[in-house]
Amino acid sequence: MKAIFITLLLALSLPLGLVAADEAHAASSVEGKLHGVAEQLHADLAHAGESIHEEEDKLTMITEKFGVSLPTLIAQMVNFVLVAFVLYKFAVKPIAATLDERQQKIADGLQYAEEMKTQLAEAERERAEKVKQAAIDAQAILTEAREQSKEMIESKTQEAAAQAEAMIRKASEATELERQKMLSDVRQEVARLVVATSSKVLSRDLSDARSKLSPIPQPKNWLMLAKPHF
How far apart are the first and last CA of the chain? Predict the structure, then answer.
């Protein structure tokens, strides 16, 4: 039993040993790469240090050439800050305020122009609608006036025709009355003339008869002769 357990332990430890050997190999490889990278980084840092040292030397040469020192640089910085503060306080700030004010005025003007443009468009639209409505109302009034005038013309025409017909009827009646009156007058005149003529004839005949002593004729027959024939 102990031998079997030892055998199994050895069998299991062999793959673990192989895996551990592989990991050790990989670790050694990674370590070598890290070592190379460290060397390269060290070389780069040394090169950068040399470059910085060269730049410092150049800056030192420039400062020595133009006579720039640390107190002078600090004094110039203080002067620059003071001048910048004065300029900001008495020049930049008022100018910025003026620019802001003008910008606000321009924005207000643009907004007012937009509002006026909108109101103008609205007024134009209302004017067009009113003109259209006025045209419709005018057309309706014109149509109504035409219908009323047509009805009035027809009414006046009918009234005039009725009046003309009445006048013609009255004229006809007056003409008929006048004709009847004239006929009556003519009849009366003819009767009067017949009577007068007959009287004359009778007077003459009577005179002749008296002279001849002949009988007197009956008055009835004489009146029949004196009646007019129409």
Answer: 188
